[in-house]
Amino acid sequence: EVQLVESGGGLIQPGGSLRLSCAVSGFSVSSHYMSWVRQAPGKGLDWVSVIYSGGSTYYADSVQGRFTVSRDDSKNMLYLQMNSLRAEDTAVYYCAKEYSSGWYFDYWGQGTLVTVSS
Amino acid sequence: DIVMTQSPDSLAVSLGERATINCKSSQTVLHSSNNKNYLAWYQQKPGQPPKLLIYWASSRESGVPDRFSGSGSGTDFTLTISSLQAEDVAVYYCQQYYSIPPHTFGQGTKLEIK
To answer: Which chain B residues have any C-beta within 8 angstroms of a chain A C-beta?
Structure first.
């Protein structure tokens, strides 16, 4: 059974850092494209970042230079390191598996809430 | 980036009636090499993550009731629920995967019972 479980969210002051984790079971993160998608309170879905099976990474313009996506193949984990956090980064962050080579999202985690506030 | 625009923003439909949600992309998502539309639909209920309903614009994901159908090509797409059930109350999103990254989503359509 495929499962994605995010953790690491919480309340953080502006300018602070946080690392989100996504524990994956049922498939190997190293074999699939894995994304982070966020959703601000009461708002729509906003793609954040992807790591390809080959290791290439891409980011939304809004987080480029501040966020870093990575994975640990031995632990089957996905991570999102978030630095220089801003109030507008407040959102539920989902990890999601992309079907095949970067198509639609066939599995999603339950999400972890990040609140950036003083 | 491809911009996805959904209409309407919200919709109220009576139980058993048809619900129709539209999605328009700022450029074509039809790939000429395979004649496939790189367009998906998701359903999101309160407090839950999105759930994949439709991919390739009209292919239903396994386990999705057949009252859900997708249609359209190029830049204009439609999600139809043929007979609305109470459990279909949700926000629905379209997403293009033709030109990625970035994946881009529509703003969402909130579906309620009239």
So the answer is: 38, 40, 42, 44, 48-52, 55, 61, 93, 95, 97, 100-108
